[in-house]
Amino acid sequence: MNITNLTLTELAAKFQSGELTSRAITEAFIKNIEAHDSDINAFVNTTFDLAREMADAADSRYQNKTLLSPLDGIPMDLKDVVSTQEAPTTASSKILENYIPPFDATVWQKLKAAGVVLLGKTNTDEFTMGASTETSAFGVTKNPHNTQKVAGGSSGGPAASVAAEFSAGSIGTDTGGSIRQPASFCGVTGLKVSYGRVSRWGTIPMASSLDTIGPIAKTAQDCALILQTIAGQDPKDSTTSDKPVPDYLAGLGKSLAGMTIGIPKEYIVDGIDPEVLNTFNATKAICEELGAKLVDISLANTKYAVPTYYIIAPAEISANMSRFDGIRFGTLPDGTTDLQSIYKETRTQGLGDEVKRRILIGGYALSAGYYDAFYRKAQKVRTLIKQDFDTAFLEVDAIITPVSPTPAFDIGENKDDPLKMYLEDIFTIPASLAGICGISTPIGKSKDGLPIGAQILGPAFTEDRILNIAHQIQLNIT
Ligand code: GLN
Fold first, then answer.
1. For 134-170, how does the pLDDT look when each residue is reduced to its tens digit (9 = 90+)?
2. What topology is assigned to 3-251 in CATH?
3. What confidence tens digit (pLDDT) does each residue in 257-274 have?
4. 92 pocket-lining for ligand 1 (C-beta < 6 Å)
């Protein structure tokens, strides 16, 4: 049996029936990481000793019939912005290279309490700013389908880890597309939850009005299992919603018959790769065969989404990054004598170019003379973008679009062109600004063997609905 090839759902079933031990599952993933991560660079740090200990504990619980949850004994990794007391949490930045948090993020507390085995922490663009993991201080993550290509970003480590069969599932973060785009580039499933569905306490923030945490795994069913454990209100995160958490697995059996799915004309743009378009059209046909009604819709303010995001996100980034000052976080550089030089040297040496660029843009957009022209204006346009979705969802149950205009691009291709890199998220950013949920599902491959994905968007707190649509597509795709 090829253990690492199985879905998380299948592994959980085999562990719970006694067919496989957690230790055997864990060793199989460790073997893959040891053999191949030197090519891929998905992991920033591994925690194999801990993983073996946690797996053995899960096996004892199986013997004693005291299993903790459906995820008990399952090996996963975490994007390296999720705070863990067991391992450094670096945000793939030099400034946090040796930082071991004194607490666990809520999402890790929940997974640990569910019996999940931690294999390690996976790579990201520095502080999650980027779309290719090329801004990581610890090197780019390569695409397991073709190592000349990026894995996407910023959750390139988590997506590559699942695609390369280094772990059964992972936790990523998505602020403007960072779960959906790498999942699409790596041919796995990634869920960006609605704003407020999953606690962000203890996860290193990027842009606080946009950040979300969600699962990346092989299938929609796997993502449903993980989401069940991590969703819900958290007294430590006042932005979490008190809306009840539905039974996501139970929601997976529904037929698409009678459902209306919108196709926004603004997403079928010039310059979209013909193979992406063909694969997307084939997926539309599958939805129709499954009984869904497809309708053309318009999300008229889509063209303003990228510029709006690149005002709001840097503004919030500049505020969040102020804590990295060499005093509370960051190592004190030698030769610094006064407060100014501590700030300056810590940041000069500890932060990369993209992070610095965003701090500068954000500081500018928030400055007294420009606040109204940029930040306030961007907030108003954000409302219009959200209203486009509100109006569309009066007519349709969900929306389907490509995830990205192209399959994974070459390493280095966009690295020195920030504007080109920013446009990578043209299809994922609008949903982030609106706070709604979206899932990226694999729908095929280009002739060069690169994965292509579709994005299914639903109104806020309809994760059950979009998980089911992705699941139905995954069951029926050939
Ligand atoms: N690529 C986008 C950016 O660089 C989104 C990043 C993210 O979602 N964390 O801001």
1. 999 999 999 999 999 999 999 999 999 999 999 999 9
2. Amidase signature (AS) enzymes (3.90.1300)
3. 999 999 999 998 878 999
4. no
Q: Give the type of residue at 4.
A: T
Q: Which two tokens stand for residue 316?
A: 């919030």
Are 436 and 188 a contacting pair, CB within 8 Å? Answer: no
Check: CB of residue 426 under 8 Å from CB of residue 381. Answer: no
Which amino acid makes up residue 75? P
131 touches ligand 1 (CB under 6 Å): yes
Q: What is the best residue among 92, 93, 128, 421 to mutate for testing ligand 1's pocket, by most ligand atoms within 8 Å of CB?
A: 128
pLDDT score for 446:
98
Q: How many CA atoms lie within 13 A of 190 on its CB side?
A: 39
Q: Which residues contact 179 (CB under 8 A, 6 or more apart)?
A: 155, 158, 159, 172, 173, 190, 191, 192, 212, 214, 216, 440
Span 167-218, pLDDT tens digits: 999 999 999 999 999 999 999 999 999 999 999 999 999 999 999 999 999 9
Indicate if ligand 1 lies below 6 Å from the C-beta of 154.
yes
SS3 of 143-194: ECCEEEEECCCCCHHHHHHHHCCCCCEEEEEECCCCCHHHHHHHCCEEEECC
Q: Is the CB of 133 under 6 A from ligand 1?
A: no
Q: Which of 80, 425, 432, 455 to mutate to test the pocket of ligand 1 (most atoms within 8 A of CB)?
A: 425
Distance from Cα 128 to the centre of ligand 1, integer Å: 6
Rounded distance, CA 143 to CA 404, Å?
Answer: 16
The answer to pTM > 0.90 is yes
Q: How far is the CA of 210 from the centre of ligand 1 (A)?
A: 10
* 336 band by pLDDT with thresholds 50, 70 and 90: confident
Q: Which helix (H) or strand (E) holds 320?
A: helix 305-320
Q: What are the backbone angles phi and psi of residue 61, rounded to the nearest 5°?
A: -65, -35
Confidence label for 420 from pLDDT (cuts 50, 70 and 90): confident
Predicted pLDDT at 328: 83
Q: Work out which ligand 1 atom sits closest to the CA atom of 128.
A: 9
CA angle in degrees (0–180, nearest 5) for 97-200-85: 40
**Hey, which residues are catalytic here?**
79, 154, 178
Q: From residue 443, give the alpha-carbon distance in Å to each of 4, 186, 449.
A: 21, 12, 12
Is residue 9 a contact partner of residue 219, using CB atoms and an 8 Å limit?
yes
* Orientation angle between helical segments 305-320 and 353-366, nearest 10 degrees: 100
Residue 62 clears pLDDT 80, i.e. is over it: yes
pLDDT in tens, 289-322: 999 999 999 999 999 999 999 999 999 999 999 9
